[in-house]
């Protein structure tokens, strides 16, 4: 098997900035795929790195979600790579995956020698830091390359100290990642609402990544699509927007899957709510009303 030719074809067709081979099939469950699984019969994984970092300008939306939805950008690139590889390696199968995959993409990327696992729970690329998306092609081709040791985290504790929730400190299981809190449906607890307001985020959290020394001085080379149509804030006009205006805004955004209600709640909470001296939250319209 000519693995360097295979990786060249993958990189050229997908635009991945880096690519590697994982000579095993790490699944989310840790078990071999069942016969009904699309991964059944697959032997290894081609992993591509797609950096998205375009700068860390101030904003209330986390960095990965500022451009267009990465699924819609990476999926066609992986499909093109699968097509090119199928033509170059007749009879072999190539199954694309990005994010919603039965594969453990983070492990596959580490075992492919593209980076390592940080104490913040994220994959960290040696060249691009943790601001990357992973795209994979599972294949029934077998490779003899050794599985790489994904080591490199300094275990310096910078991510843990910077984290506003304590979720990286282990012990307290009640702590929850702020990123997950911003995605929660329904009503938030007072503590969750206060945290979102204090961190001024309507979607996601980059604090542990921005604190990580592995993200300093990394190469900045995002796919061109990630530079387009970027937003750092939710438009304030959404507060009184119609259904059609919300639909138009959410179309193609990485957070669209969560639905309007969550975004609308977060907008109201973070951008239109203030705390009184005794900590009671009041909406801006009520504040204005008081001032009249
Ligand atoms: S901040 Fe330090 S401990 Fe945390 S992921 Fe980065 S290198 Fe590892
Ligand atoms: S994303 Fe934010 S809340 Fe979650 S672990 Fe990182 S710093 Fe903590």
Name its key features.
two-stranded antiparallel sheet; binds iron/sulfur cluster; globular; 292 residues; alpha+beta
Task: Provide the spatial order of strands within the biggest beta sheet.
Answer: 1-2-6-3
Bound molecules: iron/sulfur cluster
Arithmetic mean of pLDDT: 91
- Unreliable sequence segments: 286-292
- Rg to the nearest angstrom? 21 Å
What is the 3D form?
A: globular
| Distance between the first and last residues' Cα | 76 Å
Tally of helical segments: 10
The tally of strands reads 8
Beta content comes to: 5-15%
Count of separate structural domains = 2
**Could you estimate the helical fraction of the residues in percent?**
25-40%
Class by alpha and beta content: alpha+beta
- The secondary-structure element order is HEEHEHEEEHHHHHHEEH
